[in-house]
From TrEMBL:
Pfam families: PKD_4
CDD domains the UniProt entry points to: PKD
InterPro entries documented for this protein: Ig-like_fold, PKD/Chitinase_dom, PKD_dom, PKD_dom_sf
Organism this protein belongs to: Pedobacter duraquae
Top-level taxon: Bacteria
Protein name, UniProt field: PKD domain-containing protein
PROSITE patterns: PKD (PS50093)
Residue runs in coiled coils: none
Signal peptide region: none
Domain PKD: 47-82
Stored Gene3D superfamilies: Immunoglobulins
Amino acid sequence: MLIFIVCGFLACKKDSPEVKAEFRVKKTSFYLLEQVEFMNVSAQGVYLWDFGDKQTSTDVSPVHTYTKPGTYNVSLTLNGQVTEVKTIVVYASISSYVVVNNTGFDGLEVTAYYSDINGRIADSVKLGTLAALAKSDTVFTAATLIKLGGVQMGKRTSTEYPLLRNTNNVLSMQ
């Protein structure tokens, strides 16, 4: 009889499911003034978002715009106790680009630069030597027009590319 009582007691014990705050964001790097969409995938409850810039929200899945560049720790608190934190970076730029070597040749040395209104080089980024079909690292910029210069088999090339705002532009060296 004692065995039945102990087993019966254990069978009546219910484990409550773990409630945790959980959210997703499509990417972790953003441009200045780009809208950041946070998708809440937590259980129902009371939500408190802290965007890391002294702004908060109680929306289920808020949209937030950062007005200053920086690294932000975004937290979602569920029912006042369970929290998830993710880090996002906001760049002081309006667009970005990667360069793809579509010339068909290995060893293309690439430098990206942009000029001021007088035609003088204002800034440049050495993207290194790219193998055929290889991509450079992503470069974040405030420029709206990029010139790519390359040296391949002793021959210099230069091409201008307009950059679309709030977009990771793919620039193809032909």
